[in-house]
Amino acid sequence: MNPPKPNSAPKRRKKTPSGPPPLRDSASEAIGHFLETLDGEPCSELYDMVLHQVEEPLFKAVLNYTQHNQSHAAAMLGLNRGTLRKKLRQHGLLAESAPPKPKRSACSGKAPATRTAAAKSANSKTTSKGKR
Fold this sequence. Notes:
Blueprint lengths: L22 H16 L7 H20 L4 H8 L3 H10 L26 H14 L2
């Protein structure tokens, strides 16, 4: 008979009773409480409401955990970074920055000047006189 092989994976310990209850239990209790308070009143779009209520604290917690690094937060959540940003906007958790400034022209280093019709007309008169 062969001796049992040592297991290299560490055993997971159960949380002590002093810690918070599992998320599943907390959600079940909160949803049950919500349904009890309806007291027979109709309810619609419960699924969307629950997701919206759970997403916001989830995003806040993950952003705090990742020190507001959206790329790391998105990877942790299993989302595309663009999807995370969209959801953060929906929950009002994304600080909108000022719109980007227009890029300068690559040739001159300055933004191209816009000319008014009067300036174009005056310029064409002077150039036509000088070419005679």
